[in-house]
Amino acid sequence: MKVTKTEIIPIPPSGGMIAIANVVIDDVVFLGSIGVHQRLDGKGIRLTFPTKKAGKGQISIFHPLDAKLHGQIQSSIEHQLKKVLPI
Predict the structure, then answer these.
(1) How many Å apart are CA 73 and CA 65, to the nearest integer?
(2) Is residue 49 exposed (0-12), middle (13-18) or buried (19+ Cβ within 10 Å)?
């Protein structure tokens, strides 16, 4: 699997969140509303994937199960983020 498109939507910083990202995998799967947060130590970013409230808890909408794919998503988002935000 490979990230084939990445879109960054900058937002006013709030609680560490600096942008929303959308990615496309293999030109066939769209993954949207990925939260992009500045790390507390200021070194890089971390990602949060969408969840939905279910009763008193939360359920995942989607998230990568494979560390390699997660790394590809993060790298792609970091690359595009540098083009639109001074991080």
Answers:
(1) 12
(2) middle
Which token pair is 19?
């942008």
The 3-state DSSP class for residue 78 equals helix
Task: Kindly list the domain boundaries of the chain, sorted by start residue.
Answer: 3-84
Using CA atoms, how far apart are residues 15 and 59, in angstroms rounded to an integer?
A: 21
Least trusted range by pLDDT, from 12-16, 27-31, 73-77, 79-83: 12-16
CATH number of the 3-84 domain: 3.30.1120.40
| Average pLDDT of the segment spanning 29-57 | 94
Alpha-carbon span 10 to 87, nearest angstrom: 12
Q: For the whole model, what pTM was predicted?
A: 0.90
Between the CA of residue 31 and those of 54, 57, 61, what are the distances in Å?
21, 22, 10
pLDDT of residue 38: 93
